[in-house]
Amino acid sequence: MSVLREIHVLTLFPDLFDGFLRESILGKALADGRLAVRLLDFRGFAEGRHRSVDDVPYGGGSGMVLMPGPLVAALESLPSGTRKVLLTPQGRPFDQAAAVRLAAQERLALCCGRYEGFDERIREHVDEELSLGDFVLQGGEVAAMAVIEAVVRLLPGVLHNADSPTEESFAQGLLEYPQYTRPREFRGREVPEMLVSGHHEQIRRWRRKEALRRTRQKRPELLARLAPTAEDRKLLAELDAEAAATGAARPRIDVALVHHPVRSRTREVVATSVTNLDIHDIARASRTYGIDAYHLVTPITAQRELVQTVAAHWLEGESGARVPQRADALQLVRTVPTLGDAVEAIRRETGTAPLVVATAADAHGRPTVGWAVLRERLAVESRPVLLVFGTGWGLADEALDLCELLLEPILGPTDYNHLSVRVAVGVTLDRLLGRAR
Ligand SMILES: C[S@@+](CC[C@H](N)C(=O)[O-])C[C@H]1O[C@@H](n2cnc3c(N)ncnc32)[C@H](O)[C@@H]1O
Questions:
Q1: Domains, the chain, ranges and CATH?
Q2: pTM over 0.85
Q3: Mutate to test the pocket of ligand 1, among 110, 137, 147 (most ligand atoms within 8 A of CB)
Q4: Residue ranges in the chain whose pLDDT is less than 50
């Protein structure tokens, strides 16, 4: 495998790199001669008396755009085989995996934009686009420095301790375990006993478990992407059991089935009728997956009374005595006039306003949260959670606006997307709460 030997930085502000390249591990790597960083001011490739590198955007608009000529000429002056990276907020987010990948290139070029960014045709002359994150910097130089620092510390011999890049955050798809150093006690807070025990294997296991715990708490989406080992699965089960023992296992989770405001086939806001099937089947799914209450939302008094009558039939009557499992499910049924009332009821009972999560067959351009991310979040969420389902042709905007998150639609391999709400509830509860055998 090759190792990075040369980084070219294409920038209009080479002086910004002065101190950065002199200091610390980078200064050392450069002094050792194991790595060369070459700053290339692409203004030198501009033509004309003024050596302009930017011009006004076609079509109008504010600011100036980098012209393709100088930057592309600078890129073409680089040695062949150089991996060319454009730094842009439109790129793939830079992460540890990208750092590892770039550290294995022999030559790397980092193109720093300025002003309003790059003429679109520049993109055709690079191998990839990277972003430092979802924010806009004044120029690509700080992003280039971040990439250089993350990459250079991975090069052999740059760090004193050869192990550290494989141990730390992200190296294994997890955040790093908690670290402690002297003193053993600081303001009443002791270093965990395990770390001073001297049992190396137990310490390794403890650290892995804490890395899992911490990632679940702080970055559940990373955990959702992890391919867990058999040991990870065991450790995650231990974390679940610990949480259960402290009563913090899982938040209270309720389900709401909204009959108003929902959309009709012609997208008008309407109220739908409650159905016996929805009362029974969603109550049974709720009971199976440990839902705390099932709220049927309808502003129509007669409809709420109907639901109460059906539930009472199974709870109080002869049928309840005959089929106790059904009574067990139907005792979860509540009726409320509005979704806001369901939210308020949960707040009153728990003292905390719930995290309200909507579901939809089509997000209609609204941002959504992924299944795995919500599943991990439920493991650490301290607020109660209300999962909201719509009847008819889905929740109307007034209902969606009350929800903090919108869950990704359930999609099959076909483009037919008309699940009954009962099936949608079943799939959702299983994806979020189901246990593998
Ligand atoms: C003001 S920004 C231009 C942003 C551009 N108008 C856009 O919306 O994509 C100027 C330059 O800073 C750099 N830059 C800004 N934000 C960045 C980020 N998050 N990651 C990497 N580079 C960034 C890029 O090189 C960009 O061309």
A1: 6-152 (3.40.1280.10), 174-180+196-249 (1.10.1270.20), 253-433 (3.40.1280.10)
A2: no
A3: 137
A4: none
